[in-house]
Amino acid sequence: MEFSNVIKERYSVRKYKPDMLGEDDLNAILKAGMLAPTGCNYQPQRIYVLQSDAAIAKIRALSRCAFDAPVVLLIALDETADWKSPLEAGCRAGVQDVSIVADHMMLAAWDRGVGSCWVNYFKPTEVKAAFGLPENETPILLMTLGYPADDAKPLSLHHESKELSEIVKRL
């Protein structure tokens, strides 16, 4: 698919077919995340593929926004592995890096006919404990993945955008 079409047509899918993702599709999506740019290429993202019945049941109990996706990616930040600015204390690239990785995976998914939804509706401390993440890792987002149901559609607000002049300032 043409890249401009991918970014125009992609929407957050909240209704999925029950079919498990094909390994080729899943691996291509994960590899797109691996190719994403990160600060100094430190790659602080840690991606957990939740696909077993037990893992899916656990994440659905922790977030109502896991929907009925057959796969959920738990994307965490390794707090010891991200770029830290020498110019200002506390200025770090980790959350941005993880976000870029997630966006690459979402666009790669859509290009392969796989729907996704970025989910922030969860308690990171509970998810971290439930899945036994190490102390140095912080869950940043969940990403649902699956083939969109035949009646899946974007939310009504999806097609509404602010004017460019409202969000861009030329200096």
Report the total helices.
6
Rg from C-alpha positions?
17 Å
| CATH architecture type | 3-Layer(aba) Sandwich
CATH topology descriptor: NADH Oxidase
CATH superfamily: NADH Oxidase
User: Residue-averaged pLDDT, rounded?
Assistant: 97
Strand content: 15-25%
**Which CATH class?**
Alpha Beta
How many E-type strands?
4
Description:
The chain is an alpha+beta fold and 171 residues long. It is 35% helix and 17% strand. The chain contains six helices and four strands, in the order H-H-E-H-E-H-E-H-E-H. The protein has a four-stranded antiparallel β-sheet with strand order 1-2-4-3, sandwiched between helices. Helix 2 packs antiparallel against helix 4 (94-111) and helix 3 packs antiparallel against helix 5 (124-131). The model has no long low-confidence stretch (mean pLDDT 97).
Describe the protein's topology.
Layout lengths: L2 H7 L13 H12 L10 E6 L2 H10 L8 E8 L15 H18 L3 E5 L4 H8 L5 E10 L17 H4 L4
Antiparallel strand pairs: 1-2, 2-4, 3-4
Helix pairs in contact: 2-4, 3-5
